[in-house]
Specification:
By secondary structure, the chain is of the alpha+beta class. It has 2 domains: 2-176, no CATH class; 189-401, no CATH class. The chain has 11 helices and 16 strands. It has helices at residues 13-43, 51-56, 58-64, 74-97, 213-216, 218-229, 241-275, 286-289, 310-323, 325-339, 383-401; strands at 2-10, 114-117, 124-127, 136-139, 143-148, 156-165, 168-176, 189-194, 198-202, 207-209, 278-282, 296-297, 305-306, 342-346, 371-373, 380-382. The strands form 4 sheets. A 7-stranded antiparallel beta sheet has the order 2-6-7-1-5-4-3. It has a 5-stranded mixed beta sheet with strand order 10-9-8-11-14. A two-stranded antiparallel sheet has the order 12-13. Strand 15 (371-373) and strand 16 (380-382) form a beta hairpin. Helix 1 (13-43) crosses helix 4, helix 6 runs antiparallel to helix 7 (241-275) and helix 7 (241-275) packs across helix 10. The radius of gyration is 26 Å and the shape is globular. The model has no long low-confidence stretch (mean pLDDT 90).
């Protein structure tokens, strides 16, 4: 089992400068490799360059520029080239499947925030004692950097990553560990229905309120973005100290909302995993749910369009993103795996329109967002509770059909 750990770094002033130079030089390597691929495709008869060819040139690159490229870890530079190769692989996969391709772009120095080390001990060294204030991580070309290790790392450290978030620096570890002991069985099963009004409702009638972290911070974020708009500089040389402060303020607000969502998702998922042996949820296609409605051309006027509900859909999309369903479901599956619980995703079709008592399915069974009233048998309940009940039943059917 692979688990990730993220710790705050406490670099000195010189170490922070060296870490910034490491990101800058890896960004330069990434952009240079991208330019080489573009030039080869345009001028050498559509011939592509692969990762292996660029990796073989690293020795020459390091020898040519020892001050900027030669002092960093060879394996971390290979990881940067592999990162570019993955971007091209994803680009060609999207082209083949007919999706929006998104050709790999050059990275600005302020937007290249991660350097990966594929193996602990090769260009970096994690030296840790649980809850020891002297915990260090060593990076080649930087030295031993203090780590705020707030919890012990279980298992064998496999990879190490350096990450910059605003003005803060983090180290991210992946560790291979034995499967932990499962939690004691509770004999309880539950289905959950994710929503906007309530974050989720379960089949037992309980509700988890939607904290709406993004909406609560919207006014502050709007003011910060308006302050940032007063600095319309485009080039790095034109950016003033005021512009940098405005950028940092917007980034701080976004970071706070992100941390609040993660905290809420972790706590909610943990409570579900501790309480239930089996959890079923809807297999939501969140990306499709966030798509903007297609424009409706007006047949009577050239160049004009009919109303298509784009404004209302934009508000719904914003609420879906604010809820953070995708992050929550990812965390739920990870915690369930560690706890020995079972989580199953089921088709959400008609789960909120089917009566759990008689099985009658109709759109009219749900007259309002919250109310469910079966036209066949007269059963009434909260619509989200009905949806969670139907999700649980579908999940149990799927589990019993696949006992392995």
């Amino acid at each position: 089992m692979i688990r990730a750990y993220k710790f705050l770094l406490r670099p000195t002033v010189r170490q922070e400068q060296a870490l910034g130079e490491m990101l800058r030089d890896h960004c330069s390597l990434y952009n240079g490799a991208l330019q080489e691929r573009r030039d080869a495709w345009r001028h050498v008869s559509k011939t592509g360059i692969k990762y292996g060819m660029q990796s073989a040139q690293l020795k020459e690159v390091r020898a040519f520029d020892p001050e900027r490229q030669g002092r960093w870890s060879f394996s971390s530079q290979q990881a940067t080239l592999r990162r570019l190769d993955k971007a091209f692989a994803a680009f060609f996969r999207r082209v083949k499947s007919g999706d929006a391709p998104g050709y790999p772009r050059f990275r600005g120095v302020n937007r290249f925030d991660t350097v990966d080390f594929p193996k602990d001990g090769d260009g970096c060294r994690w030296n840790s004692t649980p809850h020891d204030p002297a915990t260090r991580v060593r990076f080649q070309g930087v030295g031993h950097v203090k780590v705020n290790q707030h919890r012990p790392v279980a298992g064998h450290v496999k990879t190490v990553s350096l990450r910059r978030e605003g003005r803060k620096w983090f180290v991210v570890l992946t560790a291979e560990q034995d499967r932990p002991e499962p939690l004691p069985a509770t004999g309880s099963v539950a289905g959950i229905d994710l929503g906007i009004t309530n974050f989720l409702a379960d089949s037992n009638g309980a509700f988890v309120p939607n904290p709406r972290h993004g909406r609560r911070t919207a006014a502050k974020l709007k003011a910060a973005q308006q302050a940032l708009s007063r600095f319309p500089c485009r080039k790095a040389k034109d950016r003033t100290a005021g512009h940098r402060r405005a950028v940092e303020k917007v980034a701080q607000l976004h970071g706070k909302v992100r941390r609040q969502r993660l905290d809420h998702a972790h706590k909610t998922a943990l409570s579900l995993v501790r309480a239930h042996d089996f959890i079923a949820h809807e297999d939501l296609k969140i990306r499709n749910m966030n798509k903007a409605p297609a424009p409706r051309p007006d047949p009577g006027r050239a160049g004009a369009f009919l109303p298509n509900g784009a404004a209302a859909k934009a508000g719904l999309n914003k609420s879906i993103n604010d809820a953070g369903w995708g992050v929550f479901l990812t965390i739920l599956h990870a915690k369930a795996e560690s706890a020995g619980r079972e989580v199953i995703a089921v088709n959400p079709r008609n789960t909120s329109r089917t009566c759990p008592e008689c099985g009658h399915t109709a759109k009219e069974n749900r007259p309002t967002q919250e109310q469910f009233h079966c036209l066949s048998c007269g059963h009434t309940a909260h619509a989200d509770t009905v949806g969670a009940t139907n999700v649980l039943r579908a999940g149990l059917v799927r589990r019993d059909a696949n006992p392995a």
